Prior knowledge:
Helix 3 packs across helix 9 (about 195-230), helix 6 (about 110-135) runs antiparallel to helix 9 and helix 8 runs antiparallel to helix 9 (about 195-230). The protein has a domain at about 80-220. The protein is mainly alpha-helical. Helix content is about 75%, strand content about 0%. It has helices spanning about 1-15, 35-50, 60-75, 80-90, 90-105, 110-135, 145-160, 165-185, 195-230.
Amino acid sequence: xxxxxxxFSNFISSFQGSTPRxxxxxxxxxxxxxxxxxxxxxxAFHTSVPLLKKKPPQESETQxxxxxxxxxxxxxxxxxxxLYLSLAGLIPFVSVxxxxxxxxxxYPELAxxxxxxxxxxxxxxxxxxxxxxxxxxxxxxxxWMNLANSMVPALIAWQALLFKDITDGAIMLxxxxxxxxxxxxxxxxxxxxxxxxLRIVATLVAALSLLATVALKAYxxxxxxxxxxxxxxxxx
Length: 236
């Protein structure tokens, strides 16, 4: 026992007395000097900074674009009654500016009938949201948000009929159609894709028809002003 203990102590003393050629103390090692430690810290901070930078969120825009494409592709899957009735409902919108173009005359009476029909459709779109929130098993609850939003298109349609000028009323109806479309696409994601595609097409056709009537009205008024100036000036 004493021999083994003596050998172990001799081994420890010999190890402490000799230092390898490539070894160095931690306090004197050049690789761990104060400057090198700071450099390592700065390098670590520099490499970690790009990780902290936030990239601009583009997932929402990509998702909306994907939903739009899916809705347009699903338009062919629309039930025939819904598709045919929606197309038939666009006839009062399209027929007014088309008849004016064919006859070459702007008729204020026809423009007012188009405006009245547009107000009815905008009110119908708002009431459809109300009816969607009323059933017990509906994902949309009949709370203040859903029911109040369903009243907005109806109020816009009512305001459109109060304008004296057809142009102001038509622009108001275009805004109402856009708001109703936003409700159906963004706030009610449970609607089927084919219905959303149908709503997009119907809204675009109705809005363009109203704007076409406004353009025909402006063109007719411009020609009327030119003709009046010609009558007043005999030189022309």
